[in-house]
Amino acid sequence: MRFQYASQRKEYGRALVDLGKSRKDVVVLDADLSSSTRTADFAKEFPEHFFNCGIAEQNMMGVAAGMAASGKVVFASSFAVFATGRCWDQIRQSIAYPKLNVKICATHAGITVGGDGASHQTGEDVALMRTLPNFTVGVPADAPETYKMTRAFAEWNGPCYMRMGRLDFPTVSDPDEGFKIGRGSVLRNGEDVSLIGCGIMVSRCLEAAEALERRNISAQVINMSSIKPLDDALVAGAVKRTGAIVTAEEHNVVSGLGAAVATYLVEHDPVPMRRVGIMDTFGESGEGEELMRKYGLTAEKVVEAAEEVMRRR
Amino acid sequence: MVAYPDDVIAELERRANLIRRHVIRMTRAAGSGHPGGSLSSTDILSALFFKVMHHRPTDPTWEDRDRFVLSKGHAAPAYYAALAESGYFPVEELLTLRKLGSRLQGHPSRNKLPGIEMSTGSLGQGLSTALGMALAARLDRKAHRIYCLCGDGEQQSGQIWEAAMLGAHYELDNVTAFLDRNKLQIDGPTEKIMSLEPLTDKWRAFGWNVIEIDGHNMREILEACDKAKEVRNRPTMVLAHTVKGKGVSFMENALSFHGKAPNDEETKKALRELGEDI
Ligand SMILES: Cc1ncc(C[n+]2csc(CCOP(=O)(O)OP(=O)(O)O)c2C)c(N)n1
Ligand SMILES: [Mg+2]
């Protein structure tokens, strides 16, 4: 498939700048990665509303909580591994529990971080954030959706987590559709199997659907950018329609989108299902695309999984 | 105090220069990596691996070896080059840095490469692990020392100061830590992003023996290591004043080369400046 590629981070920066223009209550924090996370774009326009906290993510989350408790809408950014795991207890105690208006928007998630290796990659961030009560968790599929999600988070009163990648992502979302918290979207209709993806894997699901079509299998593709709350109705609809589910994520399958969908299925409407994702392992250095192949984050894997769940149906 | 003859110093300087050339070639081959912070740490790493530390590259798990933890894990290229030149693995392997399947991960991985005592890369954590090794050495009545290298931006991390307290509390005089004071982090100068000064006073106030040196002066590095061994009941922090990108004119004090590899042209220029015939 031919995709256009665009940067999620750049759209995040642009959304912050637009927010800064219209809202005086928005503040942005970063931890010495502002040029990479693109909060620097906001810092340039609104230096008084930007606070670089240095290489001190735990402190940054506490500061974010305090500002939110004082009426600010706080965006706090770093790489996903440092913005979640490094400061998880600060997030839990000072942001999630008091239910404060902090938007943790992290970049360089997953293994497509590439050369930096396992210390900088993360397959746990969605898990860590979705297990926290009060948190809303979103994984935009592409750059335009990143912009929309940033704006939606700003309107939402409560703690949110958004996960972005380092690489430019294929543009897959419908330009006319907005992002709503708790809602996913159907990108392609199909009758035989449902492919539910998030992040960069939505594009792999679309590629898989094309490959399946060549084998006369009609696959539905869902972009589940709202991980929490999950779009239960959309999953229920997929079950009804196809009765065979594949999830795909650039995250550890133990605890991300696949786990969320599996929980829903088991409790409501068990049908055959398979998770495609990082199989409970750390990553390593390499080019992003290379790593996706090595770790099974490919359209081929989605196709295999689709055929398997259909056989089991 | 040992007086180091000029030829010993000259030989160490020669090897440091070799490490610098490796760093340039490695990051070029990888197309990414961190030359700036590698070059500011190179002289310290060379002194440690080629002179100060007792270690056996052919027997990397020898139990009486001195330990080294690279708390600023992104200086991996210089660290790997020092390990390879020490004999831990073939020098040719250096050019596999960051490539798929390589043992030379973007940040040091303990389970991948001999000679690496601790996986690092997430800043602020290495010093604590070094202190753990120091406590274990004492428990086992071992005489080996623990060396650790921290970044200055890294000092912003709270865990560093938790470690500072523990090191003094347990009187870990078997620890020599270095602080690569190159005055830069990613987003800018440390004093602009999150000021650290007065750093010497802070470490002293936390109960450490602090030695300030020029981190590119081989003799001062060696003498600081000797002095640290003589101190009782306190760990030592060697505050090494350095220049980020040291040795390559256009990388010196250049923010952009924190996490960017040189291109072909820059590689040639850098290697020429480092005295390589090409
Ligand atoms: C906990 C954590 N947060 C952020 C980063 C990303 N990061 C890598 S290097 C760096 C700057 C380090 O600055 P400094 O310690 O001064 O190192 P040096 O100048 O010696 O390269 C940052 C923020 C990280 N590795 N770990
Ligand atoms: Mg520095």
General description of the model:
The complex is a heterodimer of chains A (313) and B (278). With 313 residues, chain A is an alpha/beta fold. In chain A, α9 links the parallel β10 and β11. Chain A has 13 helices and 14 strands. Chain B has one domain: 3-Layer(aba) Sandwich (Rossmann fold). Chain B has nine helices and five strands; from the N terminus they run ααβααβαβααβαβα. The relative contact order of chain B is 0.17. Chains A and B meet through α2 and α12 of A and loops of B. The complex binds thiamine diphosphate (TPP) and magnesium ion. Magnesium ion binds next to loops of chain B.
Question: How does the SSE layout of this entry go?
Answer:
The complex is a heterodimer of chains A (313) and B (278).
Chain A: E1 5-7, H1 8-22, E2 26-30, H2 34-37, H3 39-45, E3 50-52, H4 57-69, E4 73-79, H5 80-83, H6 88-96, E5 102-107, H7 125-130, E6 136-138, H8 143-155, E7 160-163, E8 168-170, E9 185-188, E10 193-197, H9 201-214, E11 219-223, E12 226-228, H10 232-241, E13 245-252, H11 257-268, E14 273-278, H12 288-294, H13 299-312
Parallel strand pairs in A: 2-3, 2-4, 4-5, 5-7, 6-7, 10-11, 10-13, 13-14
Antiparallel strand pairs in A: 1-8, 6-12, 9-11
Helix pairs in contact in A: 1-3, 1-8, 4-6, 9-13, 10-11
Chain B: H1 6-30, H2 35-52, E1 67-70, H3 76-86, H4 126-139, E2 146-151, H5 158-169, E3 175-181, H6 190-193, H7 199-205, E4 209-214, H8 218-230, E5 236-241, H9 264-273
The structure holds thiamine diphosphate (TPP) and magnesium ion (MG).
